[in-house]
Design goal:
The structure holds 2 protein chains of 2 kinds. By secondary structure, chain A is mainly beta. Chain A contains no helices and 11 strands. In chain A, the strands form 2 sheets. In chain A, strands 2, 4, 5, 6, 9, 10 and 11 form a 7-stranded mixed sheet that branches. In chain A, a hairpin with a 2-residue loop joins strand 5 and strand 6. Chain A is globular, with a radius of gyration of 13 Å. Chain B is mainly β. In chain B, 0% of the residues lie in helices and 59% in strands. Chain B has no helices and 11 strands. In chain B, strands 2, 4, 5, 9, 10 and 11 form a 6-stranded mixed sheet that branches. The chains are: A mainly beta, B mainly beta. The interface between A and B is medium-sized, with 25 and 26 residues.
């Protein structure tokens, strides 16, 4: 089955700890994205990558870091510098071929920091 | 600054009603507008619109884009409780692949 997996589904951390969220895709997509969703808000772009070993900041990159060492994987680290890390995090991927902007989403990780 | 604005932010209707969701945008180098449905977790793709005036249809859902007035609407006829979800509008710009999302419309369909 082709798709995007995110793990874990729920994550609890103490304030001051870094935490890494996993995102893997087997769709052979070139581009991958990380979004944050807060209650009553849409999706806000954190980071995205269109090629291995390269990534760009989105609209709310402060307090987050990413890596793209493999095409299939795009992990997101939420650092202790992120002031309000509790949120729902969604990973997505897309092809860069043609003119389709359609992004495919994983099931999300709900992070709670106390 | 690029902007995508959805209205209403929330809507409660009864089964069988018809609803119209709105999405307006102000972005540079517009390429496409996409609609997604988000029930619990992952948003699922509904439509991508690139040309003005051409309606896209899937069952009871339809959508159209007006590039002159910079908006799109999503219509749902004969609503069912399974239509309850957040509906997200997103705009693709330029030659890159990133999308800018609106805040979403929370639709609740009561039996």
């Amino acid at each position: 089955d082709g798709g995007i997996t995110q793990s874990p589904k729920y994550l609890f951390r103490k304030e001051g700890q870094n935490v890494t969220l996993s995102c893997e895709q087997n769709l052979n997509h070139d581009a991958m994205y990380w979004y944050r969703q807060d209650p009553g808000q849409g999706l806000r772009l954190i980071y995205y990558s269109q090629i291995v070993n390269d990534f760009q900041k989105g609209d709310i990159a402060e307090g987050y870091s990413v890596s793209r060492e493999k095409k299939e994987s795009f992990p997101l680290t939420v650092t202790s510098a992120q002031k309000n890390p509790t949120a729902f995090y969604l990973c997505a991927s897309s092809t860069l071929a043609g003119s389709s902007y359609e992004q495919y989403f994983g099931p999300g990780t709900r992070l709670t920091v106390t | 600054e690029d902007k995508v604005v959805q209205s209403p932010l929330s809507l409660v209707v009864h089964e069988g009603d018809t609803v119209t969701l709105n999405c307006s945008y102000e972005v540079t180098n517009f390429r496409s507008l996409l609609w997604y449905k988000q029930e619990k977790k992952a948003p699922t793709f509904l439509f991508m619109l690139t040309s003005s005036g051409i309606e896209k249809k899937s069952g009871r859902l339809s959508s159209i884009l007006d590039k002159k007035e910079l908006f799109s609407i999503l219509n749902i006829t004969a609503t069912q409780t399974g239509d309850s979800a957040i509906y997200l509008c997103a705009v693709g710009q330029g030659s890159g692949s990133r999308l800018t999302f609106g805040e979403g419309t929370q639709l609740t369909v009561n039996p």
